[in-house]
Amino acid sequence: MESFELLRYVTIGQYLPGDSVVHRLDPRTKISVFLFLTLAVTFTRSYTGGAILLAVTLALALLAHTPMRYVFSGLKPAMPFIVLLLVLQLLFYSNAYTPYGMASRTLFQWGWIHITNGSVQLVVVSTMRFVELLFLTSLLTNTTTMTDLTHGIEAMLRPFSRIGLPAHELSLVATIALRFLPLLGEQLEIIMKAQASRGARIAPRGRLQFVTTAQQVAVLIVPLFIDAFRRAEDLILAMQARCYVGGRGRTSYVRLRFARMDTVAYAAGLLFSAGMLVFRNQFPL
Amino acid sequence: MSDSATLPIIAVKDLHYIYDPQSAAPIQALQGIGLDVYPGEYLVILGHNGSGKSTLARHLNALLTPTQGEVRVKGLDTRMPGNTLSIRRAVGMVFQVPDNQIVASVVEEDVAFGPENLGVPEAELHERVDWALGVVGMLDYRRREPQRLSAGQKQRVAIAGVMAMKPEVLVLDEATSMLDPEGQHDVLAAVRTLNGNGVTVVAITHFMHEAIEGSRVLVMEAGRIVMEGSPREVFSRVEELRSLQLDVPQTTELSSLLNQRDPAFPRDLLTVDEVANEVQAQVGALSFRRKGEATLTPAPAHCTRDRTTVSLGGEGDAILTPTLPHHARVGDAFIELNELHHTYLRGTPLEVTALHGVSLEVHRGEVVGIIGRTGSGKSTVVQHLNGLIRPRHAGQVCVGGQDLSDPAVDIRSLRQKVGLVFQYPEQQLFERLVGDDIAFGPKKLGMARPERRERVRWAMEMVGLDFEGFRDRYTFSLSGGEMRKVAVAGVLALRPEVLVLDESTSGLDPRSRKDLLGRLAAMHREQGLTLVFVSPSMEDVATLVDRIYVMDQGRVVMSGTAREVFSQAGRLRELGLGVPQVTEVAQELMARGIRVQRIPLTVAEGAEELWRALSS
Question: Do residue A176 and residue A94 come from a single domain?
């Protein structure tokens, strides 16, 4: 059955209003802790480390009232690829991967199929890592509006503007992209519906497979680009009319505030992640 | 020398402007405009698309600079680059498309964008944002995302964004043309407040009821100013306006028709109240003169209302369950919606219920209107009609005897039967040549070339585009009105039995709108095409529609003939919907106890009714 609800399949990056402790943190804190934890997750290869991180990220997700079913529903379209990847790892990394904390041992061998305790560990730990990263990304994006994220990133990049990094321009580009991407998404949905109303075969099979042939692409892309250019022209005029001449001499309406809770969260995130990194080779399994 | 109070704030002298002067076909957009804008005035500029009014507007804040002639703002020449910022600070501008002028994703941050550019210190930024949002009545929405606001609210945010820069002049470039009646009303109220506070307003529009707001009206045609004066002076020149194919406010047209019958009746009345007052005064004078003839005193209003209720059939239940038209037999509906529910993003935290049990029907050969404000669910209904949304949760949609919840329904043949024209359909064109674009649908139906050609020819003739003259034109070089026709022809080429038009005349200027509506009406008359009009206001099609469904918050709240529905003007206004002015006049008179026999839908009917009331 055809479906034009494009938003349905995007769960990562969707802000969900709420009032949890995590929602109220300063975006800079959230971005920093997100980066720290991501590093910790990336460099952990032990069962124990993976389990600890899984428990911690799950706890944080619960703290932020993340709706689990919604988050996992976003995975559905990607599931076949994930499973394929895990199966490939299980089968073909048997000799290349030395297990953490154990002597390499063959668990199963039948013809060319060769599974070692190393490849099993790899698959289990990558699965945990995947879920942990999913929790972390949802944690950040489900609790922070895109605008706050942009402000956070701009504030964090500002010190680098002295060495020529265009922090203001980058953040304006991000702001405008955030403002107009949903509009273009809506426009794409209308165009798809309009062309389908004229007999175009759009979105007949599969969720992410909207178009199959070059002409079908043109039917959607040409009007979408014309729309995007028209909006861009309008926006340029509107910004000129509001005296925009670049970042120099601009003041800023938004001021981010670092509260006590932020200090606590920042310190905890930093210490925990550093600990996980420093002791990553000390876990028993 | 005159004193400073009467010095113009903007002075335009012999302004000429040419687009693409180097190209093979330069466009002479302005040809010698002379204009002074005085502090505190409310200047309205009227004209068709292409008359040069937007080009003129863009000269007022140095977005464009003259090819020839001169524009000075507070004495500053717009051609000197050093003056640009001072000029733009003094003259703020709000544009047509609400979405495309909002930069930030939070309302208050967007309002702060202009003052931030001016380097206003932080404490004052907050004061200015508070003040500007307050003036336009959007303080409660300060933390909202612009995307979740209605078009009218977005446009008020855009005005706040300009006002936060504290300009002396506010230029509105067709700022209301994409809004529904409620949005227009709110935006106009905000502008009126600002003008009352001393802000000079220059409003460009093609809505006549907005022009009445002005203290001075200019009419532009082909790059020149052709009429100028107070709204009353300009609108009393009905014939001249008509020859320019501009709309005349229904009230003025009404008073000019009555004036033709009785020269004592003033011909330049502008508002509903003025007409009502005049008629009441004359009726009063008559009944005073004939005092003593008791039978001639005006009938009490409830008589008429009783009659209306009777014609609605079955009292209050007619409001909830749609009544069948008298000429239709039960069960022969071509399209039938039965207790239809729909929820967007069902099963996610973002789900929104758009329809709560909607029932309606469309019979072959009928013209049906669906009205409702933005977000009332009318577009969701429309998308069910050709299977873009399938009934999945609860309720039934039947088209041509087929139940659309059946997965085996041939959706493409359904879409051939029910043609759907979206809002701003020209935005969906994609082929380089007009003929190819119109042929897209027939091609998808698998038609052979000669047959396709006939289809295209027929569809183009139907919308009034010459087949030989237009089929090889470049689609994107056409005017807005022509592109709209191409888009409609693209749907007609499917030869649908029902044509559904979702706000398909909005954004057109009066000339193109009348033309397109006239063609659709002719197709209905001559070819028996069934039409479904969807719109927040029915002023244009009030006379065309047999029946109207009024939607609000995902439900059908009123239904009946146009006359029945419009007779409840108060209710419609509560629902944020527009009522033709002539209907409002009749309503007003009835409220004042003057007998009006039937609710008029057109100016001609209105003149007839008022004349009867006057001469009884």
Answer: no
Is some CB atom of chain A closer than 8 A to the CB atom of B420? Answer: yes
CA trace torsion A63, A64, A70, A74 (10° rounding): -110
Q: What confidence score (pLDDT) does residue B313 get?
A: 34
The pLDDT tens digits for B491-550 are 999 999 999 999 888 888 888 888 999 999 999 999 899 999 998 877 777 878 999 999
pLDDT confidence of residue B306:
33
Q: Is B209 on the interface with A (CB under 8 A)?
A: no
Range of the domain at A131: 9-144+257-285
pLDDT for the residue A224: 93
| Residues A98 and A229 placed together within one structural domain of the fold | no
**Residues of B whose CB is below 8 A from A179:** 102-105, 146
My answer on whether A231 and A262 are in the same domain is no
For residue A26, which amino acid is it? D
- pLDDT tens-digit profile of A190-220? 999 999 898 887 654 444 454 456 667 788 8
**Judgement on whether residues A79 and A184 belong to the same structural domain of the protein:** no
Domain-located, residue A151: no
How far B246 CA lies from chain A's nearest CA (Å)? 27
Report chain A's C-alpha Rg in angstroms. 23
- How many other CB atoms are found less than 10 A from the CB of residue B14? 13
CA distances from A26 to A37, A65, A140, A145, B287 (A): 17, 17, 11, 11, 75
Q: Test B125 with A253 for CB contact under 8 angstroms.
A: yes
Q: Over range B198-206, report the average pLDDT.
A: 94
Q: Residue A7's closest chain B neighbor by CA?
A: B345
Question: Does the residue A159 lie in any domain?
Answer: no
Question: Which H or E element spans position A174?
Answer: helix A167-197
Q: B164 CA to chain A: closest CA distance, Å?
A: 10
Please, which residues bridge with residue B53 across strands? none
Residue A132 shares a structural domain with residue A267? yes
Per-residue pLDDT, averaged over B237-256, amounts to 88
Q: Are residues A236 and A262 in the same domain?
A: no
User: What phi and psi, each to the nearest 5 degrees, are found at residue A107?
Assistant: -95, -30
To the nearest whole Å, the CA of A58 is away from the closest chain B CA by 19
| pTM score, whole prediction | 0.82
- A267, A281: one domain: yes
Total structural domains within chain A: 2
Contacts of B126 in chain A (CB under 8 A): 253
Q: Does residue A73 form part of some domain?
A: yes
**Residues in B touching A16 (Cβ below 8 Å):** 349-350
* DSSP-derived secondary structure letter, A129: H
Best A198, A217, A225, A245 residue to mutate vs chain B (most B CBs within 10 Å): A198
Looking at residue B293, what is its pLDDT? 38
**Greatest Cα pair distance in chain A:** 73
Check A242 against B165: CB less than 8 A apart: yes
Contact: B103, A223; criterion CB under 8 Å: no
pLDDT exceeds 70 at position B331: no
- Decide if A121 is inside a domain: yes
What domains can you pick out in chain B, each with its CATH number? 4-243 (3.40.50.300), 250-297+591-615 (no CATH), 364-391+408-560 (3.40.50.300)
Q: Are residues A34 and A75 in the same domain?
A: yes
Pairing of β B498-502 and β B418-421: parallel
Q: Which tens digits make up the pLDDT trace of B486-495?
A: 999 999 999 9
